[in-house]
Hints:
With 347 residues, the protein is of the alpha+beta class. The protein has helices at residues 2-56, 65-112, 127-175, 177-205, 208-212, 215-230, 247-267, 297-302, 307-318, and strands at residues 236-240, 273-279, 283-290, 322-327, 333-340. The chain folds into 2 domains: 2-124; 208-340, Heat Shock Protein 90 (2-Layer Sandwich).
Amino acid sequence: xxxxxxxxxxxxxxxxxxxxxxxxxxxxxxxxxxxxxxxxxxxxxxxxxxxxxxxxxxxxxxxxxxxxxxxxxxxxxxxxxxxxxxxxxxxxxxxxxxxxxxxxxxxxxxxxxxxxxxxxxxxxxxxxxxxxxxxxxxxxxxxxxxxxxxxxxxxxxxxxxxxxxxxxxxxxxxxxxxxxxxxxxxxxxxxxxxxxxxxxxxxxxxxxxxxxxxxxxxxxxxxxxxxxxxxxxxxxxxxxxxxxxxxxxxxxxxxxxxxxxxxxxxxxxxxxxxxxxxxxxxxxxxxxxxxxxxxxxxxxxxxxxxxxxxxxxxxxxxxxxxxxxxxxxxxxxxxxxxxxxxxxxxx
Length: 347
């Protein structure tokens, strides 16, 4: 009897999910149409911007440098937006294809079991599970948005200047070689600085040395880079036997320290931060303390807009660990988390 009830509940859940899938398909169809229209509009704007630049290239020396710079920046911005929207459209179309496959499977399953009576009560997914999924999605989207802003304000803006400076160098080589050399040196310096920014972005996203050398060397390098950027000392202390751990644990430890350091500096405006890591035989423990302005722990963890700490706590708990936050307004913060690990060393 219990097995029959469980199967009926499964069918009820499938029917509910099928209805949701159909609603999702309607929504994604609207988004695809909107995105396709935006792509078409941006294609036209891109063509207009390119034509505008071609028009004044014949009178390059007589056109104010600011006008040239503005034209190239506009072109780069349009092209970047077009690239982003095309990617979004492709992602939506891919999601639509996957949803259509799921919808067909759900429909076939319900048709095959149409003669089975379903109970009227509906079994809903626990609210806590929904909250976890929502926070994970929000965290991923927030990370993407942050990366887009950094790329737009950093490398994308620099690339527009590269185009301008390259054009200027090309023109001046025919009329003023010394000025051309000066512009070329400026271009070289700007390219080197932008390359450094891009390396920082890559490191923040997924440092390659995390896979090659492990979490401790990676965190030492990250903290060193963090100190240089923010201009405050961040001592890091490591105790216990330094060793490799499972990949998902090392990633969680790295992301945890990254999140806590960012919160301490950006949100708490701390002037002193210290990191302690203890590698015990059966667990790794991390403590990040700061002298910042502090916060109400309950309020922050329950606020859907502040998803970083809540998501970090859930990831740690899924690994069998625990996150403890001690903070109050004006008295700094102590964040500590521990994750159980295999007692044997991972080579």
